[in-house]
Amino acid sequence: MSQENSELRSLAEAAFGALNARDLDGFIAVAAEDVEFTSMVAEMEGTTFRGHDGIRMWWETVVSAFGDVHWEVLDVRGPGDRALAHVRMDGTLGEVPVNLTMWLAATLHDGKVTWWSWHRAEQEALEAVGLRD
User: Could you give the domains of the chain?
Assistant: First the structure.
């Protein structure tokens, strides 16, 4: 694994490790102060979350809605300031089992995530960060 991909994997593992541990401060630590992102769960409302306050709102409304939940990073790659992660999430929403495999597109600056969005297909995620041929 290249050093670049090793750094991406470390950042992804820190972010998803914080999600798994329900560690909001640990999750915020990997995000830039002016981060922007979308959520698959909140996509129907067309919500874009912004900044650390946006992370807190997303955490309270989306993350906390899930019961027993576990995130697993299956793959992560990208050239420097752009990243693509293949992620599996298993949990419950209400009493309904939720098992998703999805793609996260992200941009980075100075070791922090500045933007991310979730996608159902790899090609959509590649296109979102300008890596699609």
Answer: 3-128 (3.10.450.50)
pLDDT tens readout for residues 29-84 = 999 999 999 887 666 666 899 999 999 999 998 888 887 889 999 999 988 799 99
Cα separation, 51 vs 68, in Å, equals: 26
Q: What is the dihedral of CA 100, 42, 48, 74, to 10 degrees?
A: -10
pTM (global) more than 0.90: no
At 12, is the secondary structure helix, strand, or coil? helix
Residue 132 corresponds to which tokens in the numbers above? Answer: 């699609």
Residues in the chain: 133
Closest CA to 100 of 113, 118, 84: 118
One-letter identity of residue 128 = A
**Three-class secondary structure of residue 61 per DSSP:** helix
Tokens of 33: 């102060």
